[in-house]
Each structure stands twice: as C-alpha cells, then as structure tokens.
Amino acid sequence: MAAATQTLTAADAFTITLIIRRFLPDVDDEARWESFDVSVYSTDRILDALHKIKWEQDGTLSFRRSCAHGICGSDAMRINGRNRLACKTLIKDLDITQPIYVEAIKGLPLEKDLIVDMEPFFEAFRAVKPFLIANSTPEAGKERTQSVAQRAIFDDTTKCILCAACTTSCPVFWTDGQYFGPAAIVNAHRFIFDSRDDAADVRLDILNDKEGVWRCRTTFNCTEACPRGIEVTKAIAEVKQAVLRGKR
C-alpha cells in the first residue's frame, strides 16, 4: 500500500487497503474480514472505493446506496469503528497509512455484507407517531401558521434522514432490542415541540416507558455519529424534561 506523503495532490492516484467485514448467508456461518487493495484519489469517498471493488474486483460485495450525496442516509456503515455515511467520508480525511476497516452498523440483524435489516429501526420510528396530528382544521385556503421562534424550537430535529447512524452507535440499543433508540426519540421531538401539533402528550406517554427516553445513558455517541449534525443528546434531554413536566 502506498503511504501518504506531503507532496500528494488531488490529481495523484494511490492504493489503499480496505478490510471489509463480509457475510454471505449462503456460504458463511458467521461474518469474516476480507482485504481489498484499491486505487483511489484523495478526494474520493469510501463509497467510491466500494464501487470500484464491486465493479472491478468482486461483484458479490453488497451494500446499500442511493443518492450518494448524504441525503437519503442509505449507506450508513462503520468506518474505522465509527458510524458514518460512506458517501460523505473522504479518503483524505482518514489515515491512509493504515488499512481502513469497514463493516455493517451494529445492533440490527445482519443480512449480507454491509446490509442490515432496517425493519426494527423503522418499527420504533413508526411507534412514536412521527407525523402531524392536529385536531383543528384551518380555514379554507389557509395554512397552519407558525412563528420563526416557534419553528426554531424543533428546527434541529427536522434534519433527520433516518440513516440509523445515531441509533446503531448507542450501546444501550446494542444490548436492548426493545429500546426505541435515539432516532425515534429525535423524530418524536420534532412533533412534540411543533406548535401546530396536538398529540404531544400521546408521544410523551409512549416515551415515558421503561424502553423509552429513560434508557438513554447520555454517552453522546449518537450526537457524534449524526451526519447531519443534529444535537441528538440535547433533543433526548428536552424530551425527558417534557415528560417530567407532563406537557410541552
């Protein structure tokens, strides 16, 4: 593997080693590590390197990807032990003098290679009623109005792209399959504090459960993992306070 040098430019190609945790359910009893050498540029992303491996070396390598621009959240994976989006992780931001380790996110059932079963994640998401519930109907042709200040209260949690990076970075989620997880609580927060919504108490009752907000141990893993920069731990703390107050 070529080592990084001070004279390396964006126009220079070099070789890196990716060590990928593989699992082919038809042939493997358990996941295993497999090494690949791949030629890249410093401005390439991990997603680009994975594409080169799949297209040029091993077509059986499986991973999710869609928009490739950090919007869909489909390519969340563990890169050097941290949850990241492969499409937003640049080669130049990693230590290329060492192998780069890539594996599936933790805490969800492994299906194949870097692909996990997302259904438990989405089940928790759906359980918090992540949609507007309004008792009143606005006048014909009118919208439900909201001030800038009212919007600012929950603006941060509207950024969630459901990539599961926060939830699958949580040690509690790894060990407790019933815990709602950070992403579900973030999406509950988005509506609990929305002035147009009338079901905050319903969501707070759902989260005031032994597997709800009180399972959070405030390790900040979720905040660090979020590719959108959401202050996840802060949002969870605000939901805890809302539960204690019994209202918004």
TrEMBL record:
Q: Which UniProt keywords apply?
A: 2Fe-2S, 3Fe-4S, 4Fe-4S, Iron, Iron-sulfur, Metal-binding, Oxidoreductase, Tricarboxylic acid cycle
An example molecular function term from Gene Ontology annotations: 4 iron, 4 sulfur cluster binding
Cofactor binding, note field: Binds 1 [2Fe-2S] cluster.
Q: Write down the Gene3D superfamilies for this protein, in alphabetical order.
A: 3.10.20.30, Alpha-helical ferredoxin (1.10.1060.10)
The UniProt record lists the 4Fe-4S ferredoxin-type domain at: 150-172
Q: Does the keyword Oxidoreductase apply?
A: yes
The UniProt record lists the EC number as 1.3.5.1
Family listed: Belongs to the succinate dehydrogenase/fumarate reductase iron-sulfur protein family.
Q: Kindly provide the name given to this protein in its UniProt entry.
A: Succinate dehydrogenase iron-sulfur subunit
Organism of origin: Alpinimonas psychrophila
